[in-house]
Amino acid sequence: MNHPARYWHRLDDGRIQCDLCPRYCKLHDDQRGACFVRMREGEGMVLTTYGRSSGFCIDPIEKKPLNHFYPGSSVFSFGTAGCNLACKFCQNWDISKSRDMDRLMDAASPDEIAATAELHGCTSVAFTYNDPVIFAEYAMDVADACHARGIKTVAVTAGYITELARGDFYAHMDAANVDLKAFTDDFYVQLCGAHLQPVLDTLIWLRSETDVWVELTTLLIPGRNDGDSEIIALSRWVRDELGAEVPLHFTAFHPDFKLDTVPPTPLATVQRARQLALDTGLKHVYTGNVHDPEGGTTACASCGEPLIVRDWYEIREYHLNANGTCPRCGSALAGRFTAFSTAFGSQRIPVAIHRR
Q1: Closest CA to 34 of 106, 169, 131, 118
Q2: Do 126 and 62 belong together in one domain?
Q3: Same-domain status, 105 and 190
Q4: How many CB atoms lie within 10 A of CB 97?
Q5: Do residues 15 and 79 share a domain?
Q6: Which of 77, 226, 253, 305 is in the most buried spot, having the most CB atoms within 10 Å?
Q7: pLDDT tens, residue by residue, 199-255
Q8: Residue 178: phi, psi to the nearest 5?
């Protein structure tokens, strides 16, 4: 359904400008923005995907990936369609580039989503699969319904949002995994149709101005963004601007969408990137999309004690105290934690919306 959208203004030439993301799309009547889901309708703007989703499932929180946000918990995951970036390597391109929204989507109100997540005992709800920035109004309403039931909210996002909109959007989020796709503007321009600086601005703002728990993910693509010098520069920036205890995930690329002839990322590449980042002084660096138990293990930043041992998304050992401290030295682990009994596991469970 079409729903009134926020973050736009009229231009002197008769068009309206979307002010949600740094693309600043300028639209004539019935024209859609680059994201495809925000459209001019008459003298205003609407969100065309409000209340509709590409599907619902329950995941382990580690799949988002978030390793320091209630580890072992379950998260109710959903997305809509469209995206404000144009990544040639998109791993969810069938959703983010979908134009067949009427057949694709399941209807769900914010309260129905929150009620279903509560019914299944989920700790949090994640806006994922496509970027929640473009369905901000829907995501924020769902977040309000979740918070009313004591459920946390997670944004899995590229962080490509304007200064005007980010305060409202992130005020509704408890955690975010932000894709820092590379550390050169050329990569963003050529492979994403975007720019690097707005993402860096969002990250600095998140760390300095909010209480949102933040983790970062960089998908390493062979020959595109996996060079040692770029990985070191990215890691140093994270250390200096965000802090050494912000978790950074290096994940392996698999051929997809418009980069389907590029080979998969070797295990050795993500392991090398992890070591380079650790050598710069980052405390919590992980590998993903590969089988690497060492790269999935959370260790105490002070004494090195293994606190959470993972194998893929399975937690094999959990030694962290309920208050988030190391049982060996008493140091606090950065993140959000509670008492742990048993992990949700690596399963992915499709669910239907609960209607009363």
Answers
A1: 131
A2: yes
A3: yes
A4: 16
A5: no
A6: 77
A7: 999 999 999 999 999 999 999 999 999 999 999 999 999 999 999 999 999 999 988
A8: -105, 125
Q: How far apart are CA 131 and CA 79, in angstroms?
A: 8
Nearest to 128 by CA among 116, 115, 118, 142: 142
CA distances from 10 to 27, 42, 81, 167, 271 (A): 10, 12, 26, 22, 50
In a domain, 301, yes or no: no
CB atoms within 10 A of CB 226: 22
Q: Is residue 316 part of a domain?
A: no
Residue 15's domain spans which residues? 3-47
Q: Which amino acid is at 164?
A: L
The CA distance from 154 to 106, in Å, is: 20
326 within 8 A of 302, measured Cβ to Cβ: yes
Kindly report which listed range (91-100, 142-151, 228-237) carries the lowest average pLDDT score: 91-100
Residues 126 and 188 in one domain: yes
202/179 Cα distance (integer angstroms)? 11
Query: Cα–Cα distance between 64 and 313 in angstroms, integer?
Result: 10
Looking at the 3D structure of the chain, how many domains does it have?
2
